[in-house]
């Protein structure tokens, strides 16, 4: 059975390019195109698509308004088509909160050649979306994202976080999973390094949104900054994020070298640096995402003495990355998304602070 895709975009050029990309794949087909959500609504009833691609900004009805109604009344996998602008990134973050599975970006220049160049990325996202678990999603809030503080273990010794680190990797579905995870972190938690597959221009908006709702500080990593307790550092879309050392301190390092596993930033790159510089002081967490990025790096973390957690299949949007990490034997514990913060903090509480060996 081919994956049935409905394209919704007010640009005839984008509709044509996406149609060409999809029709070149043997396992998917375009079952309709729509210039606006009103036409799309009728096509959805007639064709019952497996995946929608949805433009963010359209006439007659805004893409976000349509997405919100769709996810409330007839949830299905949606990939947003977004502009590489500050406003576009903010709207895309909101779309992911509303339940969109993933997004692709329109290049600023030479749209046709730009989109055709990363056709494989678009089709990979469509394949992942067709298998994604999509649920009716209420408008998220800080209160719904995080349980009461009494659920989480108190961090008795804030100095614990000066030597322990939490290292997180995610891809498809990861923005909401990371939000859920970080919103449950107490203000004295260990420093957290995060790689989420996301293009340049979107990671800063993502970090800014998280910083506004979490107890901890969240920022896009700049490179060279000391990793502090109660802070999370997100890999920028243009570079790999690595853990490094400067004397007795852990610091961030950015690396703009070639993609790894077709990704920059890559989870494997972050995990391998954690294995090298943190060893048993690291706790690894691999969340929802397609592909296998992170599996081998997490295995190296385990060999270096780190303790690793994976999100379970039931709560993943796409179980690819956790499944691969589990398959290679890199994971110690598997848990539901809402339980992961408690499990991670519980482990850290049991394995308390000792003087950092350098």
Automatic annotation (TrEMBL):
Functional summary from the UniProt entry: Involved in chemotaxis. Part of a chemotaxis signal transduction system that modulates chemotaxis in response to various stimuli. Catalyzes the demethylation of specific methylglutamate residues introduced into the chemoreceptors (methyl-accepting chemotaxis proteins or MCP) by CheR. Also mediates the irreversible deamidation of specific glutamine residues to glutamic acid.
Chain positions found as 4-aspartylphosphate: 55
Catalytic activity field: L-glutaminyl-[protein] + H2O = L-glutamyl-[protein] + NH4(+); [protein]-L-glutamate 5-O-methyl ester + H2O = L-glutamyl-[protein] + methanol + H(+)
GO biological process, one term: chemotaxis
PTM notes: Phosphorylated by CheA. Phosphorylation of the N-terminal regulatory domain activates the methylesterase activity.
Native organism: Undibacterium nitidum
EC number: 3.1.1.61, 3.5.1.44
GO MF entries: phosphorelay response regulator activity; protein-glutamate methylesterase activity; protein-glutamine glutaminase activity
Subcellular location: Cytoplasm
Domain CheB-type methylesterase: 159-351
Keywords (A to Z) from UniProt: Chemotaxis, Cytoplasm, Hydrolase, Phosphoprotein
Protein family: Belongs to the CheB family.
InterPro entries linked: CheB-like (IPR008248), CheB_C (IPR035909), CheY-like_superfamily (IPR011006), Sig_transdc_resp-reg_Me-estase (IPR000673), Sig_transdc_resp-reg_receiver (IPR001789)
Response regulatory domain: residues covered: 4-121
Predominant place of localization: cytoplasm
Protein name (record): Protein-glutamate methylesterase/protein-glutamine glutaminase
Enzymatic class: hydrolase
């Amino acid at each position: 059975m081919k994956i049935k895709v409905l394209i919704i975009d007010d640009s005839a050029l984008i509709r044509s390019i996406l149609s060409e990309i999809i029709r070149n794949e043997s396992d998917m087909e375009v079952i309709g195109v729509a210039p606006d959500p009103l036409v799309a609504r009728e096509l959805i009833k007639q064709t019952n698509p497996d995946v929608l691609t949805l433009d963010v900004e359209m006439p007659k009805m805004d893409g976000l308004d349509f997405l919100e109604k769709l996810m409330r009344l007839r949830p299905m996998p949606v990939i947003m088509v977004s502009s590489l602008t500050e406003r576009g990134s903010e709207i895309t973050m909101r779309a992911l909160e509303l339940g969109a599975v993933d997004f692709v970006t329109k290049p600023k220049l030479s749209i046709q050649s730009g989109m055709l160049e990363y056709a494989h990325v678009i089709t990979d996202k469509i394949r992942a979306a067709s298998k994604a678990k999509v649920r009716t999603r209420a408008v998220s809030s800080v209160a719904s994202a995080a349980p009461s503080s009494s659920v989480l273990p108190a961090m008795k010794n804030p100095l614990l976080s000066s030597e322990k680190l939490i290292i997180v990797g995610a891809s498809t579905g990861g923005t909401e999973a990371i939000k859920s995870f970080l919103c449950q972190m107490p203000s004295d938690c260990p420093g957290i390094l995060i790689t989420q597959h996301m293009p340049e221009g979107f990671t800063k908006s993502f970090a800014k949104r998280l910083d506004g709702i979490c107890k901890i500080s969240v920022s896009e990593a700049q490179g060279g900054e000391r990793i502090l307790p109660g802070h999370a550092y997100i890999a920028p879309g243009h570079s790999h994020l690595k853990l490094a050392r400067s004397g007795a301190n852990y610091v961030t390092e950015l690396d703009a070298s070639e993609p790894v596993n077709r990704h920059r930033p890559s989870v494997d790159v972050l995990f391998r640096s954690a294995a090298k510089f943190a060893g048993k002081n690291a706790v690894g967490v691999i969340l929802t995402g397609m592909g296998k990025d992170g599996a081998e790096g997490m295995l190296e973390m385990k060999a270096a003495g780190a303790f690793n957690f994976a999100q379970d299949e039931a709560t993943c949007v796409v179980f690819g990355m956790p499944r691969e990490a589990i398959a290679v034997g890199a994971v110690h514990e598997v848990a539901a998304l809402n339980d992961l913060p408690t499990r991670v903090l519980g482990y850290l509480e049991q394995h308390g602070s000792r003087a950092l060996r350098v």
